[in-house]
Backbone:
């Protein structure tokens, strides 16, 4: 660690430490808004800006009028002026959007505008914080947006308030000409609140950062004002008025108007009393808005009281212009009253500004002194601290009116300011920037800026040296931590690059500075090892020094880097000093610790006491120059040193005194005497000149010492005397400095003119020595003549040709390190390429997996074979059942006039007709699962009945359906004709619906179901193949990266050990240079070069890179595998389950429909068999269906119960939407009591009733049978509805899961890219940079070693 004592001394004697820093957030904000301010507040306020100012106020006036003069007002005759109120209402953005039916786009546009504006400001803030270049066009656009928000401030606030109101109440708006909905829900409520906050923030920025408190431009600007408090109050009152309008204006007419009257009275009075704007026109145009609202509210209230709208209009037409004129004269009266006030009577800052405003705006040269006196007089109200606003006014007056930037910057003393607001800080910031542009011309501020830059350069140089020195020391330690070493390397490289840029930049800016050039020479030679460039720079430096010595004007400069100087505060305490003052006073750094100026100058001079300095600082009015005279200084041994002393008051940013010295090296020695001739101070060689044995002759009389007549010397100004065998020439000079007289007696061995000017001209600068004598660190290059330079070049070329063994080793190490670093870089690049390929494989497999899933699932959903065939079977069964019921009913005559289910028969007929086109020709619908012979060859056994002929014929499916449609059509016609001759047709429908044709179709339905399951199994197998292939490719990619992982581990450690060898064997010269720089330049003496032990030399560095690469590689593999596992076991398993159960569910619903119809058919025939009304009785000669009704009843009942129980199980829970659940288990309709608890209970109860109907033999069975048949119809309809609903719901469910999977896949792909960009790429980039940094550091150390070892050989050759 660095020695803390020297660190603190270095910090205390630093100009950078004296600088008062602004908070970073405030500096960034001010810097950003200054760009907008420069565009929005030009120095020349044109006619356009003036018109824009008045237009803004007119717009605000119209907008506030629209919330006072409302269209719906309960005053008689108000509707007569409806067009006027409507026109006023259309001045509002919200009303206009409603009228144009664009209210929703307007709301969303407002949300987007403010959120986008906030995003732009955030981006600009980030760019400013990171010192990125901001496009001028973007700044211009943002500035225009600020103007736009200022114009639309209130109309958009009203719109957002209305949205907030109706989103909160969830009601429709009634304020407009149309009834519209402004309810945007919870999201709209949140967005409206957020946008209102943004709007208020932007309005605050508009007020704060468009505020200009300077008086000089008040004639040209209407925005110049003394304070923005009144403007803030005005805006807040307007906001409150809009809120009152939005929430209480309806139904609270008088309360609303009286509140407006009272509220707007406040800003109107404030504008009149405070007169914040420097322009009367601006104050009047701002305040007249509030006067208008006051008058409008008053006449509205009176009109409401007398219930007369005409009075309101008349009052507005006549009363408002009268009030406006009176208001203008009231403001003029207020101004006149201020001017008549005496300055001594003013106690308030605002009143003082009003009193002096006209003088500052219309400044005349002859009144400047009087104005300064007024400022000085009023400042006595503040003892130690004063408001910043007052300081800004005074400073801007000095800068703009007096053209005195030095006094202007001093007035902005942060240590004497209180009561600071953000807007005043911004005004101070802008003013300081303007002052600094002019201030940098003066030599004292130029010197301070130069010294600050040099300190900054030294500070960065120290950080760089410490980082590399620490690295070289730590790398040989036991078990060094890699992260610490890398941090040091990173810091070294970054700071070294900065040093290069800063050195080059500052040497271009200060091309006449030997200080910067000498520093640059040593940096290039010692650190960079560029001998050729260092030699060129050294020649340039020597030429510069020679040029400065021969330049006479240089001798006239006091504040320059070659001359001594120090800074002191108003107590006289020295707060900063340069190295030249230490040489002048022959002192050390400790000498200036707690040193005061009074001890450095002759004791009888009372010019630098605390009282004198403070008095000058507080009473300064015209000039910052305090002293300019040859008063000399007292060195550390008590001798007087003749020097020209210039003392000025400056700001850094608080006021301090800068003491500049120009030492005079004259061929004489001097003493200071008092009026009586008593010696007060002497120069160092005075006693030696007169051969006086006593060294301290203070207090002796000059007449006795020099044996002369003082009175005569004063008259003649010169004399001579004999001392020993030497002739001494004596000069007498009398100087008047302030109120103090300085009497100087000088002696010399040669005759000089008594004119002091000639003496002064003969004086030379004291510090004209070579750079070797100035600083140890700058003695690496010697001063050469042209011949010497040529000689050195020859020696250099010889040294380059005959390199030492050390240099050879350095070059070989460097080559080896370069080769290893190239190998490491290539390995990392290959690792990176494989990783990118792996990511691409994952993404591509993800896309292929996604496409496969999408296409396969959509393909499965598009298969409608089971749906079409199932619906066809259920329709055929229903036709057979309904026709049979109708035959029984009409034959029995009991239901002759009650076509209980005939409408359902017609509906099924139409459905069957619409399905026939599927069976017309073979298509993908059937070929997917069935052979073409199944439906498109005559294989279906169809019963044929007619003309007393009974038998079977084999038909295609299409022919079978056509024949069924014809029989059904004949049946319908017979019913319509009421002839009821449809026995053969009914038997055809029944025998085929419940006979062999039905069995054939049901068998094919089973085959389709099995086919669907097998196809789904193929889908699962294909999916597993894709997943296995993707995981395999991922594993192969990981295995391919493993060799490069171990190769990188090996090469990186090899590289580190080569770097360690450089640190052990090849960095001796470099360490010595670093140590010397730390000691001489940076005063850090706690560093030392320790001897490296043999164990440290032999110790091998071994860092674990395998772990760092392996866990990232493993995590990447786990991530990829996890994706496929989640895809398979979550999404695809769900897809597979839904796709597997979907046809099952459809199959069971179809079976339920068929079983219900079959049960009805069996039970009906069983019941009618006793009357020979069953099919056996109607067709005794041909019975294609078994008549064992009891067996079939029990069998069908059990099968139906089993199917219905399946619907109740959890297995099909996903298919039970709320609608399906309600149809199955809750009340669905009231036409039949059997269905009050859903079709599930209805089917079970219907089975029970069928048992009762079949086996009870109850003679009064007719009502029960009627209800039973009605239930059959309702159950059949409900099952059809369940089938359709379940089908739609299953597709929705599958597609929702598919969309969720697509979102997951896309999100995973994005996540992989983000993961690579945020984790893997930075890691690999950091590893590559680590290699580059190691190589960079090795090159710097090796080149420095080569350069400095060659310099050593050169020095030996010279000797």
Residues:
């Amino acid at each position: 660690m660095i020695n803390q004592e020297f660190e603190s001394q270095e910090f205390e004697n630093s100009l950078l430490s004296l600088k008062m820093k602004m908070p970073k957030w405030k500096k960034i904000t001010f810097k950003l808004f200054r760009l907008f301010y420069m565009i929005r507040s030009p120095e020349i306020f044109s006619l356009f800006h003036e018109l824009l100012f008045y237009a803004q106020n007119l717009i605000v006036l119209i907008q506030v009028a629209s919330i006072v003069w409302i269209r719906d007002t309960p005053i008689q005759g108000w509707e007569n002026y409806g067009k006027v109120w409507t026109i006023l209402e259309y001045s509002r953005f919200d009303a206009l959007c409603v009228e144009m039916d664009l209210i929703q786009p307007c709301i969303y546009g407002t949300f987007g505008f403010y959120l986008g504006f906030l995003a732009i400001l955030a981006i600009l803030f980030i760019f400013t914080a990171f010192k990125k270049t901001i496009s001028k066009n973007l700044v211009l656009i943002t500035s225009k947006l600020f103007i736009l928000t200022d114009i639309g401030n209130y109309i958009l606030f009203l719109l957002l308030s209305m949205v907030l109101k109706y989103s909160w109440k969830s009601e429709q708006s009634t304020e407009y000409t149309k009834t519209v909905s402004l309810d945007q829900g919870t999201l709209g409520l949140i967005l409206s609140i957020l946008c209102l906050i943004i709007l208020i923030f932007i309005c605050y920025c508009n007020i704060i950062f468009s505020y200009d408190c300077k008086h000089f431009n008040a004639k040209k600007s209407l925005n110049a004002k003394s304070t923005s408090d009144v403007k803030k109050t005005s805006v807040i009152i307007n906001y409150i008025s809009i809120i009152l309008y939005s929430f209480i204006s309806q139904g609270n007419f008088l309360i609303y108007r009286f509140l407006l009257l009272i509220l707007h009275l406040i800003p109107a009075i404030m504008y009149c009393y405070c007169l914040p704007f420097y322009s009367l026109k601006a104050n009047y145009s701002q305040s007249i808005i509030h006067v208008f609202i006051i008058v409008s509210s008053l006449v509205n209230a009176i009109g409401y009281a007398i219930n007369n709208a005409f009075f309101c209009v008349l009052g507005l037409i006549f009363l408002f212009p009268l009030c406006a004129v009176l208001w203008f004269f009231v403001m003029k009266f207020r101004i006149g009253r201020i001017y008549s006030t005496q300055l001594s009577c003013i106690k308030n800052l605002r009143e003082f500004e009003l009193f002096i405003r006209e003088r500052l705006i219309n400044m005349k040269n002859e009144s400047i002194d009087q104005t300064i006196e007024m400022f000085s007089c009023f400042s006595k109200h503040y003892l130690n601290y004063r408001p910043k606003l007052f300081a800004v006014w005074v400073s801007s007056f000095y800068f703009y009116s007096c053209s005195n930037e030095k006094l202007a910057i001093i007035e902005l003393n942060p240590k004497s300011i209180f009561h600071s607001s953000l807007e005043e800080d911004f005004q101070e910031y802008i003013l300081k920037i303007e002052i600094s542009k002019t201030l940098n011309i003066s030599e004292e501020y130029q010197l301070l800026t130069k010294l600050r830059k040099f300190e900054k350069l030294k500070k960065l140089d120290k950080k760089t040296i410490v980082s590399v020195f620490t690295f070289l020391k730590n790398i040989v330690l036991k078990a060094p931590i890699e992260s610490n070493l890398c941090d040091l390397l990173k810091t070294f490289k970054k700071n070294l690059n900065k040093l290069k840029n800063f050195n080059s930049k500052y040497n271009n800016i200060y091309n006449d500075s030997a200080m910067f050039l000498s520093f640059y020479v040593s940096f290039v030679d010692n650190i960079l090892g560029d001998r050729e460039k260092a030699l060129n720079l050294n020649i340039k430096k020597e030429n510069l020094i020679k040029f400065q010595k021969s330049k006479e004007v240089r001798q006239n400069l006091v504040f320059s880097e070659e001359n001594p100087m120090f800074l002191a505060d108003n107590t006289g305490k020295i707060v900063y000093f340069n190295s030249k003052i230490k040489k002048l006073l022959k002192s050390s750094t400790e000498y200036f610790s707690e040193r005061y100026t009074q001890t450095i100058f002759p004791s009888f001079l009372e010019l630098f006491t605390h009282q004198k300095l403070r008095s000058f600082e507080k009473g300064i009015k015209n000039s910052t120059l305090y002293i300019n005279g040859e008063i000399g200084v007292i060195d550390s041994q008590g001798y007087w040193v003749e020097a020209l002393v210039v003392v000025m008051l400056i700001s850094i940013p608080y006021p301090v005194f800068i003491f500049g010295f120009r030492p005079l090296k004259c061929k004489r020695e001097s003493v200071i005497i008092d009026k009586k001739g008593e010696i007060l101070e002497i120069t160092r060689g005075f006693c030696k000149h007169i051969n006086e044995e006593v060294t301290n002759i203070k207090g002796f009389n000059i007449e006795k010492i020099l044996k002369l007549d003082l009175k005569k010397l004063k008259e003649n100004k010169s004399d001579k005397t004999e001392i020993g065998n030497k002739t001494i020439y004596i000069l007498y000079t009398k100087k008047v400095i302030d109120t103090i007289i300085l009497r100087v007696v000088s002696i010399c061995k040669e005759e000089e003119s008594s004119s002091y000017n000639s003496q002064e001209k003969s004086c030379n600068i004291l510090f004209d020595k070579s750079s070797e004598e100035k600083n140890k660190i700058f003695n690496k290059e010697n001063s050469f003549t042209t011949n010497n330079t040529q000689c050195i070049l020859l020696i250099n070329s010889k040294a380059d040709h005959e390199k030492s063994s050390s240099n050879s080793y350095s070059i070989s190490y460097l080559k080896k390190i370069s080769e290893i670093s190239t190998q490491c870089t290539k390995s990392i690049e290959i690792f990176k390429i494989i990783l990118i390929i792996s990511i691409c494989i994952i993404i591509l497999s993800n896309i292929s997996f996604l496409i496969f899933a999408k296409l396969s699932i959509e393909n499965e959903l598009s298969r409608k074979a089971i749906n079409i065939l199932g619906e066809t079977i259920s329709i055929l069964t229903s036709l057979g059942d309904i026709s049979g019921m109708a035959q029984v009913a009409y034959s029995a005559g009991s239901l002759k006039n009650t076509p209980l289910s005939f409408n359902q028969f017609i509906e099924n007929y139409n459905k069957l007709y619409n399905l026939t086109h599927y069976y017309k020709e073979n298509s993908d619908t059937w070929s997917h699962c069935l052979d073409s012979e199944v439906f498109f060859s005559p294989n279906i056994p169809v019963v044929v009945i007619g003309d007393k002929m009974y038998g079977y014929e084999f038909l295609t499916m299409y022919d079978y359906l056509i024949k069924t449609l014809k029989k059904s059509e004949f049946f319908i016609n017979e019913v319509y004709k009421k002839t009821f001759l449809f026995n053969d047709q009914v038997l055809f429908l029944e025998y085929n619906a419940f006979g062999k044709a039905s069995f054939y179709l049901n068998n094919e339905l089973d085959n389709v179901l099995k086919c669907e399951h097998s196809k789904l199994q193929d889908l699962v197998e294909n999916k597993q193949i894709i997943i296995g292939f993707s995981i395999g490719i991922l594993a192969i990619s990981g295995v391919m990266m493993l060799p490069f992982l171990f190769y990188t581990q090996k090469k990186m450690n090899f590289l580190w050990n080569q770097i360690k060898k450089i640190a052990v064997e090849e960095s001796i010269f470099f360490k010595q240079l670093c140590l010397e720089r730390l000691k001489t330049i940076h005063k850090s003496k706690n560093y030392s070069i320790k001897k490296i032990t043999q164990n440290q030399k032999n110790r091998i560095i071994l860092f674990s890179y395998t772990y760092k690469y392996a866990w990232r590689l493993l995590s990447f593999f786990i991530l990829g595998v996890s994706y496929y596992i989640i895809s398979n076991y979550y999404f695809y398993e769900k897809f597979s389950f839904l796709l597997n159960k979907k046809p099952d569910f459809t199959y069971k619903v179809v079976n339920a429909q068929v079983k219900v119809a079959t049960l009805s058919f069996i039970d009906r025939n069983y019941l009618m068999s006793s009357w020979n009304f069953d099919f056996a009785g109607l067709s005794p000669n041909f019975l294609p269906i078994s008549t064992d009704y009891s067996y079939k009843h029990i069998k069908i009942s059990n099968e139906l119960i089993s199917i219905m129980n399946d619907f109740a199980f959890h297995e099909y829970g996903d298919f039970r939407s709320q609608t399906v659940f309600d149809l199955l288990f809750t009340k669905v309709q009231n036409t039949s009591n059997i269905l009050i608890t859903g079709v599930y209970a209805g089917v079970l109860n219907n089975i029970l009733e069928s048992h009762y109907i079949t086996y009870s033999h109850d003679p009064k069975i007719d009502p029960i049978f009627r209800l039973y048949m009605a239930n059959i119809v309702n159950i059949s309809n409900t099952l059809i509805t369940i089938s359709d609903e379940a089908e739609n719901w299953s597709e929705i469910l599958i597609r929702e899961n598919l969309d969720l999977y697509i979102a997951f896949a896309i999100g995973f792909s994005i996540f992989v890219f983000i993961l690579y960009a945020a984790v893997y790429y930075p890691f690999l980039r950091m590893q590559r940079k680590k290699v580059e940094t190691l190589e960079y550091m090795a090159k710097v150390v090796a080149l420095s070693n080569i350069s400095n070892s060659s310099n050593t050989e050169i020095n030996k050759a010279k000797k």
